[in-house]
Queue: 2 jobs
Job 1
Amino acid sequence: MRKPATSASSAAAEPQRRDTSAARAAKFAAETRLGLVRRARRMNRTLAVAFPDAHCELDFTNPLELAVATILSAQCTDVRVNMTTPALFARYRDARAYAEADRTELEEYIRPTGFYRNKTSSLIGLGQALLERHDGVLPGNLDELVELPGIGRKTANVILGNAFDVPGITVDTHFGRLVRRWGWTTEEDPVKVEHIVGELIERKEWTMLSHRVIFHGRRVCHARKPACGACLLAKDCPSFGAGPTDPVAAAALVKGPEAEHLLELVGR
């Protein structure tokens, strides 16, 4: 059986793609510190255009509710947490309610979020610690927050940035994956990532940067198959090509309510 003929244009395209890939790699390999800062800030500005309404996707009305919702979000989707918290918040309205909660009852309220026994211990411990150390009021600074049960640095930054308007960088799975993919850092440790990115981006932008990167990670730059061919950050991304570069194939991978807006921005 004869093999199908290969067109001259297709044959020429392959070395051209290799040359483009090599040129891209060389460009980012030669990037200076100043060049990295400028690129990171440019990417943040592009993300602001892509996600003008980026925000914390957990529902809350006060700092304590945000703290509880963030604790529940561990190994659980924000959507599931938001389905669980209305009844929870109606039943447990303050730190004392959590401190004095019946464990079995509280477990049933939060069971849908998974790991409910550990999370119940964290919520009861949080309520007790707030009563003992802070008159039942959630503190608004990092040092005191991370001393509370169930609240690590990531959770503290979520609370600070969204409940107290104190700039903070939230290094969750999406954030860490994307900033490494973008060549902003090679570090795996979340605290190191937080500090490194904090030196690249203006402090006033930290909270919104976190939201934008997380939105982008959930909607476009997926872990297994990023939508490279439909990404506004393509020219500034050293990992372009990790996913489909064909615009049509990439467009099919874009998710979320912003999909139409995102595709319009890239001309699809």
Job 2
Amino acid sequence: MTTIAVLGAGKIGEALLSGLLSGGRLPEQLMFTERYAERAAALTKQYGVRVVDVPTAVRDAEVLVVAVKPQDIDPVLDELAPVISPRNLVVSLCAGLPTSLYERKLPNDVPVVRVMPNTPMLVGQAMSVISAGRHASPQHLVLVEEILGTVGEVIRVPESQQDAVTALSGSGPAYFFFLVEAMIDAGILLGIPRNVAEKLIIQSAVGAAAMLAQTGEHPVTLREAVTSPAGTTIMAIRELERHGVRAALLAAIEAARDRSEELGKAHES
């Protein structure tokens, strides 16, 4: 099987390692880089996967998954450039960074696939969206789908849509967490104990997500099924519309898209 190195073992990098192991990969088929020795030792102890430096990762692994923060990409590319070759596939999980950045900084013909995952990867429920760079083949995309399929769902889009994807699904979990937090606070305001409010709202969120995923119904249809004439739900919906919640979400997601574009442009020179 393909050998995979995860460059950067933060939360997303660790989640990918855990998912790959759960999906049947052997520890000897995996490796990772990590700049903090204490964390590296803890991960090796927990997962049985060896920690390596970047040149060793390039030498021993076919797939290099770059899982560092966008602002930390330059030192990684500087380490990769002298040792990488087209035999390595680079899989970038860095928000906002285009495949053209890697293609410009790395030797000619190195294949790159851009990915926008999200944090539900930590529980095996990621939404990962992939796009091929100029030198990535259909076989490379299939391999990346296989790798990321161990930690959730995977779809393909043109790279021109990746900044919008970052705003929608990459940042998306944070919007849901924000809404859940507000709804729990509302429960407390109405006199419900916090632990009870948390249980009510979290399970409602889980159930609503399952209905969306399993019924195939449009969100409007499902919402209307709860909205009785002159009932409690329509009164709440009226207040949400009066306070511009829909417009605020549109503006927020547009702002996230713009920031993703800015992250990419910061590395154009």
